[in-house]
Amino acid sequence: MVSTAAGKPQAGVDLLRIVRINEEIKAVVGVAFKINIMALNAIFLAKRAGTAALGFGVLSNELRVFSQDLRTCMGALTELIHRCVNEVSVVLQDIRHTRLLRDAVLMSSMPGLAVVVHRREAANVEHQERLAGLRRQLQRALEDAFQLVELGGVLAKSAKIEAAYGQGFAASLAQVSGEFDGVVEEIRNSLQALQRSDFFKSN
Amino acid sequence: MKKTNTIFQEGDHKWIAIVRDPERPGHLVDTNEYLVLHGGKGMLLDPGGAEVFPAVFSALSGEFDPSALSAVFASHQDPDICSSLALWLEFNPGMRCYVSWLWASFIPHFGGTAETFVSMPDEGMDIALDGLMLQALPAHYLHSSGNFHLYDRRAKILFSGDVGAALLPAGHDALFVDNFDTHIRYAEGFHKRWMGSNEAKRRWCERVAQMDIDLLCPQHGAIYQGADVQRFINWFDELQVGILGA
């Protein structure tokens, strides 16, 4: 059994970490949903501003596409997280079963029982490999999400610049694009923190 | 490691009690497991909890090849009865588990597949073990609402699950009840609290009083033998159960 320095089984620690990641992702998904509404507002505002906010109008459409992509991306992340939680739970159950089986076979005088422990260990390896695969997939998905959010940040900053040319609508356009930028920044920070999680440092 | 004691033998027909683990952590209730052997086939009665599996398994494997266990009998659904099920199935995935229909979809949370479970109807059923007919007797509400005991007519042994159970203090580790009056004090509180129905208790007492029983084997505590069997039935018949002062 792989143990951490504190003596806790690695799978137990992993489960705590993945649960925290899951909570963080849930928060990000909530914020991402807010972005969708904000993008719609930006489109309406740009329409109302008409020729005074042509550049902002183009960007607000891009922000709407971005918000939809972000939603798809968060959906994929949520699914991956659920699969990771499930797999870590399986590994945790494996640890207990293997410990009890090993003890039983060690205490028994009957020959040939080791084959059952070997079979269990082979299944454990399979589960651990599956978890390692999911861990890599999740890491890649977080990187992709981060790239997407970087793009969102660029769009939000450009919208802020375009808002300045909005004449009579400049103040409200600046407010919308500023809020957008703030939310994107929030998601960006969350994703960055998630990428640094110790969950990705385990094997 | 737990001890094994052969409590009945006639040719290849054998009952083995697996009892008393000196290394058992004190926070786990002590349990008895019983192995019925006939014609090279084995059935384990109330196989025990996951945490005591190594102790039960190692004791059993000293007497019998665990991969040849054809079935387990679960008197009811409690974790000390059968939470080790998944581990036993590792040794023989084809093993069957006899259990009340009431728990047939609950116990699978401990392990097993749809093929593992044989649902027993409320009225009980006969269970064949390589030609030996064992009888699953209804003992509902004693204490579980879907509860069975197992009777071996040929060996005159009744496995009585939690009925007859006693929570013995340290040092009281005799296999058989040696002094009924002393012993029953450790059974009284258990029966008053764990058994939920006086009516069910009365019916059970009437039924088993008619049966030919040499050994009454509970899942906790010592085994009743000879005259102590009827003595226990009479005592239980008179005990008021299912009453809590709180």
UniProtKB/TrEMBL annotation, chain B:
SMART domains tied to this protein: Lactamase_B
One Pfam family in the UniProt entry: ODP
Gene3D superfamilies assigned: Ribonuclease Z/Hydroxyacylglutathione hydrolase-like (3.60.15.10)
Sequence ranges assigned to domain Metallo-beta-lactamase in this UniProt record: 30-220
Domain of life: Bacteria
Protein name in UniProt: Flavoprotein
